User: Fold these one by one.
Assistant:
Number 1:
Amino acid sequence: MSVPGLEPFAPEGVQWRRVSPRLATVQRIALLAWLLPIALVALVLAALLTWWVATAAVLALALAAWGWWVVGRQVPAWGYAERDDDLLVTHGVLFKSIVVVPYGRLQFVDVQAGPLDRRFGIARVQLHTASPSTDAAVPGLPPEEAARLRDRLAARGEARLAGL
């Protein structure tokens, strides 16, 4: 039984913004880029050496299928919310996580996008604080939203630091 307002992963009055579903495509491509070559090498070795090496190929393909499913479940669980004094970042389905980053603790905010991210029109906003345990990241944002969030967080962080 949960008491309204006391659920740790559903703070009262918070409107979550979700990441782009294109993040799932990028993560799935990255997953296949690692596992398919392993499966192909194992199949070639099985054909040249012995049949039992094919179990490595089957295992790699099973991991790829499982990873494909997991990515499809994890990406919709990513979210962030801006409040007056802090930013909330949540993710996870089986192991849920919520990180609260007070604006006054922000040291800097950067936006990152690899070649695959840029190809699919997404970026990652990385928040850095003095304590690594309160660092947070929001992946899978459209570039315009990533730039807006970066500028807004930097401005809020500066305003909170000025008050100290």
Number 2:
Amino acid sequence: MSFEVVVEAPGEHRIDEHTPREPAAGEALVRVHAVGICGSDREVYQGNRPEGYVRYPLTPGHEWSGTVEAVGTGVPSTLVGRKVVGEGFRNCQVCDRCHAGETTLCSAGYEETGFTHPGAMAATLTLPARLLHVLSDNADLTAAALLEPAACVAAAALKANALPGERVAVVGTGTLGMFAIQFLKAASPGELLVVGTRHDRADLSKAFGASDFRTRDQELPDGFDVVIETAGSASAARTGAGLLRRGGRLVLTGIPAAGAEGLDPTDLVVRQLEVQTVFGAPPGAWAHTVRVFGAGLLDPLPLITHELPLDGFHEAIELVGSGDPMVGKVLLRP
């Protein structure tokens, strides 16, 4: 017997028996190995998700890894048995933004696995096969469950276009920040500064490749070529801008609370800063992530601190929101 998590409404969940849905044309059925929990899953459970960005009742889970068990018509049978991860955004593929490759900006409206479609907190997940990215046969599926947040950071790293020898920095030391360090380190920077709020993230930051670590209350250098912000606060964005040289490149990935004070437009213009933003990961960023992961340049495992069964969903949600510095990435194992 297999099971799934169902969030009936905010604050209400149950563990149900799970019946796999046979793949229709163009779809694949994946046996889920592990599924990560992030702040947006907690929003789903608490009812804080913005209107239009969740559809109850819902099986959550948008960060996952697994193995293809069956495919529908029109899908290569060679996918069966392969280890995979998958994109969450259910883009339409026919609007102008999709044709431009900007699938996270699909004009048809927001649809995403684990938010408006059944997610991976279940024994199996059935989804369009076009969203799958195939891993190597020897890939660690537990580590691969974190490739969704890594892909979002990959989108930022691609936009930042850090060149070998450049001075680069990361603001924020959560999961996204730790991935940003690894992507920037892979580009052979001349210097890699990490700025956070917690001293206890210094060792892990340096293990991933940081050459210097400072907290925001310390004196911060400037003159950096590239900064990736991952903290999701307006103050972090301003800190990132302050680190840059004139003409430097800032990429924002965090989403501050509505109404937050933003960057100073005068400063942006006078220093001619280049500011880019990331919302989710398009296919190119996913492909880049899988390639970097396969090359051994991305190590998600040190970020995982807890693994629980599906019936530990409520405990997992509480862990994610606990603020405990000993809690990193929490996984559920169907």
Number 3:
Amino acid sequence: MATDLTLYTNPQSRGRIARWMLEETGAAYDTVVLDYGTTMVADAYRAINPMMKVPAIVHQGRVVTETAAICAYLAEAFPDAELAPMPEERAAYYRWLFFGAGPLEAAATNRALGVTVSVEQQRMAGYGDFDRAIGVISDAVANTAYIAGDRFTAADVYVGSQLMWFTQFGLVPKTDAIMAYIGRLQDRPAHCRAAALDDGAPGEDPA
């Protein structure tokens, strides 16, 4: 049955984050799996996301790209799932959601690319240096059960997914705090459903 919500994804991509978020909402959605060298660069998808990247969602005719934005949007679009922040959680929620999308991803990506920021360049780099960025996020997940406090929110979907991915590939150290946090998230039924769906979907390894 067609729905008014469609996920464009590839199982070997950040689309897994959007899939997990959708499963947390409980919303019905359609899935379009794209291949990196063909359908993802075709005109039909370029009209949805000119960056030719996944994930993207189309909800009631409106396009949302950028994985952190998708998580935040879906939390607000489906309030019954209670994934958006309560007033007392908003500061931490937005702080860490955007930390994950900014300093954390930049630090890990540069590490993967072999880019080392010099002392003179640290003021220009939003994350300062790698060890500082990783230390900050490790301390954050050590202090509370979830990134915004004692309750799971959409920010955990994004930040947790980043940490899962980066630790898997050795880009972020597996500190006790980070691994305990990841373990709490991986036990969630929605995460298990999303992983099963993506692991069973056709896809292409971007490497």
